[in-house]
Every structure is written in structure tokens, then in C-alpha cells.
Amino acid sequence: MKHADDDMDDLKRLYAQAPDEEPPAALDAAILAKARSAVAVSASRSSAARWRAPLATAAVLVLSVIVVINVQREQPEILSVTAPAPQSKVSDAASAAAQISVTPAPLEGRDRAASSELASRAQLSARPEPSREIPEPVSPPAPAPAISGAAESRAASAFQPAAPVSQAASRLSLRADSARSEAGPLSAAVTAAKSTANMTAEQWLAYLVELKAQGRLQEFQDSLAEFRKRHPGYRIPESLTLGPAEGK
Amino acid sequence: MAPPSARLDAMNGEARGGASAAVAPGAPAQERDEDLMLRYAAGDEAAFERLYSRHRGGLYRFILRQCGDRGTAEELFQDVWSNLIQARDRYRADARFATWLYTLAHNRVVDWYRRRSKVVWLQFGADEDGADSPAILEVEAMTAQRGEQPEVRAESLQLAARLLALLDELPPAQREAFLLHQEGGLSIAEIAAATQTSAETAKSRLRYAIAKLRLGLAEMR
């Protein structure tokens, strides 16, 4: 093997004396230019890749903020409808029905928290709209001991939890009418019983005239009987004693 | 800015034979080819220029002396460097850079052979000679010591020209093994890796190449 190595060294020396063919300068320039452009392209690609992740993150953040703002902008409107408003402008009969049927019962756990939160948000709401001030209690109504079963169920159905705004307004107006027509006689009698206690005889008689004119005969008769008890010697006008209601 | 050829000439002191060049004592330590390649892969253009200047001559001659035609050699030479540039991100410094470079060159030359002629390709893959041929025994007996006198120098130049002619007559696989050793500075194991053969095959090819060249030169004397 030593001979082979010597041969190799000898040949190596001889080979080194052979002409040094080299690539032409133009070829050198072309290859170096290609190497440079490849580096430049990869550098531009890497810089684009470097910005890709931050840009995507920023876009996601902006979209998230927009969604949150939109949700917050719409939420108070729904809440202001669902939250109970203390100053009701519904008709007297409806409010009376609400007072009777929705006696505040102790709320439990989550309902209580939700109710208080909704109430506070409703107070914070800057622009309360008239149609949204109709009381719409969140919790189901507690049973009112003095009310009959039918009236109780009607009252319960009248105060279900929140609904979309547009439906809520129409539904509430229907409920008010319903309360006026169905729960009306009872609530009027009670109202009359409460209010007539402080009336003078003349005021009471005027009230009776009004009841009769409105055709609320049952209330009229009840109130008249009460008047007679309270004012036994008082002369009742014939227009009240004579008529279809009193003629029975 | 100096033209590329001028800059390459300035750097070309780095040696013929590329990575096989030894560093002179006291000279600043040369940066390893592998480090230069990694730096180029990271975007350092100057690292590529240094690397190119070290290997351009050897690689060019390696290709030229196999295909025998300048035009083809330039085309293949450019292809090899283009492949290297494209593959720079995949380069791992777990082997010598020269081995990787000459592997790319070997693949490109073999591909060229395949396209050129199937017959030549079959010759390229085959080892023609058996072991211990008379020629080898004769070459092993030869050990010539030469001086540096002018007449000896002239004789050397003649012999060098004859050597190239003999090299051209070698079977392609043996010629390639010899050129890989001479131009790339590759060891037997590295030649085996570059040509995807066993170390024994690479060693055998190199031995036969040397034996034939020595025999041809001896006939000339």
C-alpha cells in the first residue's frame, strides 16, 4: 500500500502541473448573481412571514373589539325591556292587576342576582323608551292568596319572562287589555273599596253614577250596597236606584 | 465595487483543490467550508463568494475532465451551483461540504451521461478490471524520484499533458474516483459517499485509475 501512496503523491505532483482550466468570468458572475438574488428573495419572504403573525393577531383583535362593542350596544335595549321599571304608564287596570298578581315573592339564588343585575343595568340605560317601560318582571309571579285560580293563571301568563322588543310591546298592550276586561271587575271593586273609604257621600254617589254609566254593573251594585251600609240615612237619587241594575 | 472575477482572483489564493488546501503556519485560520455554507444559508452573500472561490476551479475541472467539452462543462457547472443554492436551507453540517458539493456534481454528471448515451452509462457503472492485473503489479514496482532541474520541469509538463490524455482514456468510474481525490480532496470514504458506492469499490476504482495512469506514463518514458 505504501507503493500506492507513493504513486499517488507522484501523480498528484504531476497532475498539479497540468493546465488550470477555470470557469469563464461571465459564468462566475452569473452564479454569484444567482446566489445573491436567492438570498434577497428568501430575505423578503422571511420579512413577509415575520409580519404575517402579528397582522393576523391584530386583525383578530380588531374584529373581536367590534363584536364586543356591537353586543354591548344591543344588550341594554333588551335588558331595558326585560327589567321591571318602577314608573309604569300602562292603564290603571293593568297596573292594578300587576300589583295584585305580582306580589314580590322572595327570589332565589340566580334569579335574585339576575334580577338585581338587570335592574341596575336598566337604571344605567341612558335613553329609556316609552314602549319599553311596561313592567315585565323577570321571575314568574308568586301566587297571590286572595285571587281565584283563573285570575292567578291569567296573571301568571301575562307576566312571562322577556321576549324580543318588537313582540314585547304588542304583547304587553294585549295583556293590558286582557287585564282590563277580565280582571277588571274584581280589581275595580277592590279599588273602589279602598278609595270610597275616604270619599264623601257626594263623591261616592258621583262615582256610582260613573260606574253605572260605564255599564260596570256588578261593581256598581257592590259599591251601592256598601254606600247604603256606610250611609244608611242618606237619600240616594232615583237615577241610581231605578234602572236595569237596581231594578233586580 | 470590483467585478466578481477580480474579487475571486483576490480570494483565489485559497488553493487549488479546495478544502484540501492546508493552512500555512502563522496565517489567519481559514473559516471552514461548512461554516461558510451555514452562513450563506442564513443570508450571508460574502460567505458564498468565499466558498465559491475555493471550489470553483476544482469543481470545474472535475466536470470538464469527465465530459471533455467546455460548453457542456459550463452548463453542468452552473447546474451544480444552482442546485446548491436551491438546497442551501437543507444543508446540514454533518459531513464535509466538499463531499456534499461533489455528490451534487456526481449526480449531475451521471444524469448527463444517462441522457447522452446508455452505453456510456453502462460503462460508467462497471469496473472493467479484475483485481491484481499485471498492470497493477507493474505500477507497484515503479517508484521514480524526480528533481526540479529545467529539463526535468519540461519533462514534467510533457508528462502532465500525457497524464490528462491518459485520464481521458480511463473508464468513467475510475476517472471520477481519481478526479474526486485530486480536485475535491476527498478521501476513499468520501469518494464512496459521493458516488453512492461502498468504500471497497471506491478504493478499487482509485487503485485501478492510479495503476493505469502510472502504466501509461511509464510507457511514455
Would you kindly provide a written description of the structure presented here, covering whatever features stand out?
The complex is a heterodimer of chains A (248) and B (221). Chain A has helices at residues 2-16, 25-82, 92-101, 109-124, 149-158, 165-182, 184-196, 201-214, 217-230, 238-241. Chain A is mainly alpha-helical. Helix content of chain A is 69%, strand content 0%. By secondary structure, chain B is mainly α. Chain B has helices spanning 4-11, 33-41, 45-67, 70-86, 97-116, 118-125, 134-140, 150-169, 172-182, 188-195, 199-220. The chains are: A mainly alpha (248), B mainly alpha (221). At the A-B interface, helix 1 and helix 2 of A face helix 1, helix 3, helix 4, helix 8 and helix 11 of B.
Strand content of chain B: under 5%
For the report, how would you describe the main beta sheet of chain A? Answer: none
Oligomer classification: heterodimer
Number of helices of chain B: 11
Number of helices of chain A: 10
Largest interface: A-B, 34 and 47 residues
Rg of chain A, nearest Å: 45 Å
Shape of chain A: rod-shaped
Summarize the structure.
Chain A is built from ten helices and no strands.
Keywords:
heterodimer; A: 248 residues; B: 221 residues; globular
Summarize the SSE layout with pairings.
The complex is a heterodimer of chains A (248) and B (221).
Chain A (H helix, E strand, L loop, with lengths): L1 H15 L8 H58 L9 H10 L7 H16 L24 H10 L6 H18 L1 H13 L4 H14 L2 H14 L7 H4 L7
Chain B lengths: L3 H8 L21 H9 L3 H23 L2 H17 L10 H20 L1 H8 L8 H7 L9 H20 L2 H11 L5 H8 L3 H22 L1
